Amino acid sequence: MRTVPVDPYVTISALGGAPFQAGKTLLFSFAVGFSVTSWSFDNSKGDSITQVGPCNADGKGGDCYAQYTSTHGPGQSTITLHAKSACPTKDVSTVLTILP
């Protein structure tokens, strides 16, 4: 029998740590656990974020990838991953620095 965690596992990682140029794209990774039934992204600049390929939601930090496309110029963008599960929801955020 599988025990479903009360708090869904979700994380954003591998943003590269370094700033990137406005007008460019950045591939990053994220992970969701097996209890997460759906997820979505948004960001404070209103730039496009799209999932790239399938996501292996295995509960151990499965390999999931998304692409951020900078279209609104330099500054900081807060990327938020919204995850839903059978009961609770969970949001995780990270800040991305975009250079001119």
Strand order of the largest sheet: 1-3-6-5
CATH architecture: Sandwich
Query: Main β-sheet, in a few words?
Result: 4 strands, antiparallel
CATH class: Mainly Beta
As for the CATH topology, it is Immunoglobulin-like
Q: Provide the domain count.
A: 1
Question: What proportion strand?
Answer: over 45%
Low-pLDDT parts are none
Query: Roughly what is the average pLDDT, rounded to an integer?
Result: 85
Please work out how many helical segments DSSP would assign.
Answer: 0
Task: Give the topology string: H per helix, E per strand.
Answer: EEEEEEEE
Helix coverage percent: under 10%
Head-to-tail CA distance between termini: 52 Å
Secondary structure class reads mainly beta
Radius of gyration computed on alpha carbons = 14 Å
- Would you identify the CATH H-level superfamily? Immunoglobulins
Number of DSSP strand runs: 8
Please characterize this protein's 3D structure.
The structure is a single chain. The chain is mostly beta strands. It has one domain: Immunoglobulin-like (Sandwich). The chain has strands at 10-13, 20-21, 25-32, 36-43, 48-52, 64-69, 75-85, 89-99. A hairpin with a 3-residue loop joins β7 and β8 (89-99). The radius of gyration is 14 Å and the shape is elongated.
Write a short abstract of this structure.
With 100 residues, the chain is mostly beta strands.
List the helices and strands and how they pair.
Layout: E1 10-13, E2 20-21, E3 25-32, E4 36-43, E5 48-52, E6 64-69, E7 75-85, E8 89-99
Spell out the key features of this protein.
Immunoglobulin-like, 100 residues, elongated, four-stranded antiparallel β-sheet, mainly beta, four-stranded mixed β-sheet
